[in-house]
Amino acid sequence: MDYMIPFFACPPSLMSQFVLVLMNGFSSSRSSTGIGAALSYCVQQVRRYDYHHYLCLLQLPPSMRKAGFALRAFNVETAKAMDAKSDPKLGLMRLLWWQEAVDKIFAKKVIEHPVAQALSSLTAELKISKTWLKRSVEARIADAKREEHDIPKAIEDLEKYAEDTVSTLLYSTLEAGGIRSAAADHAASHIGKASGLLLLLRSLPHHASSGRNIPYIPIDLAAKHGLLIQEAGKLRVDVQPSRGLEEAVYEMASVASVHLNKARQLAATVPKEAIPVLLPAFPAEILMSSLHRRHFNTRT
User: Fold this and answer.
1) Is 231 helix (H, G, I), strand (E, B) or coil?
2) Stretch 135-150: mean pLDDT
3) 188 pLDDT above the threshold of 80
4) Which tens digits make up the pLDDT trace of 221-270?
5) In the chain, fewer beta carbons within 10 Å around the N or the C end?
6) What are residue 7's phi and psi, to 5 degrees?
7) Residue 39: is it exposed, middle or buried by C-beta count within 10 angstroms (0-12/13-18/19+)?
8) Separation CA 117–CA 147 (nearest Å)
9) CB proximity list for 89: less than 8 A, separation 6 or greater
């Protein structure tokens, strides 16, 4: 545990000191071919849309950094798909395209998309499993197909969604590094679940106001805290600022905190080479601290 805590508690100022040195290692590994341009695109997308994880990926060893950026860029593309405010069906179409793209990647077919091209090049070099990529995009497709006011039933449903969409990234990165460790896998599972839950909480105002109107507060917690409302035979969750909403958010954040604590408890048994892969615990801690400072009010 001693060697894990300094990374997890590393302040942003210290993280940024490593950026230039670590980017040099990545840049030197790129070729001048189209694959190099595809990998550069992945880095740019992660830096633009997922900056905290961009900093984490820079601390991966050069042999794993390309895979880390390609996998995280894949997550950016699939996560952004349902941001299409004009028509949710467009988002679903994008996700279905990515589902097909994963099959093509592993069938060694040509795909005209830089993230897909980067992943294709990596599957030829590294042992990256198709299972995790498929599981991730299929979880997002299932979520995209939910009807308006289709509320998750329990926190366990959201934990599963978090594992399917976030933990799978860590599983794939561990695979890319040739790291075979049950302890690392378990830590990745907990970190992914915590990260996924906290990201859903951070995005709660966006999800509640989007065209789909699906707040990610499960029915059991909504009912417990007086947030569940029935209108015209349909249930909805009241996500207007209230004490009840803050209490529900607190309970969800507490579940995430338990997962982070379990990951810490596993730290002493995790191989040293797996530690950089598990740095996404750091952005999760940032989100947790932010919620705590705002007294679990997601709108302030």
Assistant:
1) strand
2) 89
3) yes
4) 999 999 999 887 788 888 888 999 999 999 999 999 999 999 999 999 99
5) C
6) -65, -45
7) buried
8) 33
9) none
Residue type at position 156: E
What is the CA angle 78-188-35, rounded to 5?
45
Burial of 49 by CB count in 10 Å (0-12 exposed, 13-18 middle, 19+ buried)?
middle
> Which is nearest to 248 in space by CA: 175, 197, 174?
197
Counting every residue written for the chain, the total comes to: 300
Which pLDDT does position 12 carry in this prediction? 43
3-class secondary structure for 235-279? Answer: EEECCCCCHHHHHHHHHHHHHHHHHHHHHHHHHHHCCHHHHHHHC
Is residue 195 a contact partner of residue 284, using CB atoms and an 8 Å limit? yes
What gap in Å lies between CA 281 and CA 262, rounded to an integer?
A: 11
Using CA atoms, how far apart are residues 250 and 296, in angstroms rounded to an integer? 6
Task: Give the tokens for residue 197.
Answer: 């839950």
pLDDT digits (tens, 9 = 90+) for 57-69: 999 999 899 999 9
Distance of CA 288 to the CA centre of its chain: 15
Whole-number Å distance between alpha carbons of 180 and 9: 25
Contact present, 251 and 220 (Cβ < 8 Å): no
Q: Contact, 254 vs 168, CB < 8 A?
A: no
Assigned token pair, 2: 């001693």
Distances 39 to 5, 27, 35, 69, 277 between C-alpha atoms, Å = 31, 10, 6, 8, 19
pLDDT bracket for residue 3 (50, 70, 90)? very low
The amino acid occupying position 143 is D
Q: Which two tokens stand for residue 123?
A: 């599957």
Mean pLDDT over all residues of the chain?
86
